């Protein structure tokens, strides 16, 4: 799979082409396979109500992409020219959430439709930047993103071309600002804009590139893949609570095994799991086999609609790092089980500095390890 993903590296790198335009390619209903009946009726209703109120509104992103690939979407997102406050005024069942990215959640029983206002590019001049709306840190990572803009600007702010597709269920047209349909047909994950700059704005985009490539069985376009290894250490600056959520998306979506292979190949595994990465370096066969088998089993359970738990996932990902911790226990007279328990505590504390594993999972992780030691 990795050979397929990165075979394009054999050709010399050229400056990436611009993949957004101010005028979209418009696909009428006869030019695409989408039908409004395929989408959530609640999401379609939101689009219709916002348009009737005088706003622009579209179904956007992953739900459009997945429908084009005959995949049933898990979520349906709406993008609109209405501000969060204007959206809330139109829907009594709406709630504004978030600070870094202000969004609106509209509740229909158990179904939640996420509505986002069109966003614009961030000003590069600090003097022009309103810290209440937009802010970056010294490395260029976006800390706050509430700069609203036009539909065209919103398309430029999307991360990947395949996510910059806007479907209007009223006119049944698809607006393609970034050649996303072309990349879907060619099974490519391609960043919009300069890859290095976009990764610096949000290093988690590197993980998203891997997640989409594994989920969709796409390749990562060469210009989008090229900066990843050099920028991988930037993941260490991402809040550990956010990384926990991203790791669950990576490994509990049914494609954990190929995801692991890509993370290791692109040197993204180390900033997430430093101790296990060392084990992979010093004892590669055992570590790789154990983790791969555990992830293959996890993928199989998900495909069979069987329950999976983050505790087992983290127990498997971290288990290969335990032996080295045990061997470094101070004092030679410590009983083996006590030494393992002490090492387990240390390993979890260290890992939580990178990925904030909630306490409701850390105890089961240690119990799983303890059972292995007693078998």
Automatic annotation (TrEMBL):
Domain Poly A polymerase head: 57-190
The keyword Hydrolase is assigned to this record: no
Pfam family, one: PolyA_pol
Organism name: Pseudomonas avellanae
Disordered: annotated span: 1-32, 119-143
Keyword Transcription among UniProt keywords: yes
Protein name, entry field: Poly(A) polymerase
Similarity comment text for this entry: Belongs to the tRNA nucleotidyltransferase/poly(A) polymerase family.
């Amino acid at each position: 799979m990795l050979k397929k993903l990165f075979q394009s590296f054999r050709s010399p790198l050229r400056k990436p082409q611009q993949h957004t335009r101010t005028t979209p390619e418009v696909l009428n209903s006869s030019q695409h396979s989408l039908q409004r009946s395929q989408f959530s009726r609640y999401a379609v209703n939101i689009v219709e109500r916002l348009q009737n109120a005088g706003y622009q509104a579209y179904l956007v992103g992953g739900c459009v992409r997945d429908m084009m690939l005959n995949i049933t979407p898990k979520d349906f997102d709406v993008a609109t020219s209405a501000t969060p406050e204007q959206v809330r005024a139109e829907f009594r069942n709406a709630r504004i959430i978030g600070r870094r990215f202000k969004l609106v959640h509209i509740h229909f029983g158990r179904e939640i439709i996420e509505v986002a206002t069109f966003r614009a590019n961030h000003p590069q001049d600090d003097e022009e930047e309103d810290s209440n709306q937009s802010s970056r840190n010294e490395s260029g990572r976006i800390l706050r993103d509430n700069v609203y803009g036009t539909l065209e600007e919103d398309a430029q702010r999307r991360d990947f071309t395949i996510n910059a597709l806007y479907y209007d269920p009223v006119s049944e047209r698809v607006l393609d600002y970034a050649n996303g349909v072309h990349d879907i047909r060619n099974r490519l994950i391609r960043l919009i804009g300069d890859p290095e700059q976009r990764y610096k704005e949000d290093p988690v985009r590197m993980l998203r590139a891997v997640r989409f490539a594994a989920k969709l069985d796409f390749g990562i376009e060469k210009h989008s893949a090229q900066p990843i290894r050099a920028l991988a250490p930037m993941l260490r600056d991402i809040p550990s609570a956010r990384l926990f959520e991203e790791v669950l998306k990576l490994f509990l979506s049914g494609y954990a095994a190929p995801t692991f292979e890509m993370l290791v190949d692109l040197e993204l595994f180390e900033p997430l799991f430093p101790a296990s990465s060392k084990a992979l370096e010093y004892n590669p066969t055992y570590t790789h086999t154990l983790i791969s088998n555990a992830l293959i089993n996890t993928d199989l359970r998900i495909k069979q609609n069987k329950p999976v738990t983050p505790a087992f996932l983290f127990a498997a990902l971290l288990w290969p790092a335990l032996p080295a911790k045990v061997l470094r226990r101070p004092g030679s007279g410590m009983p083996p089980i006590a030494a393992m328990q002490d090492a387990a505590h240390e390993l979890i504390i260290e890992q939580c500095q990178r990925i904030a594993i909630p306490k409701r999972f850390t105890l089961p992780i240690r119990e799983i390890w303890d059972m292995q030691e007693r078998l």
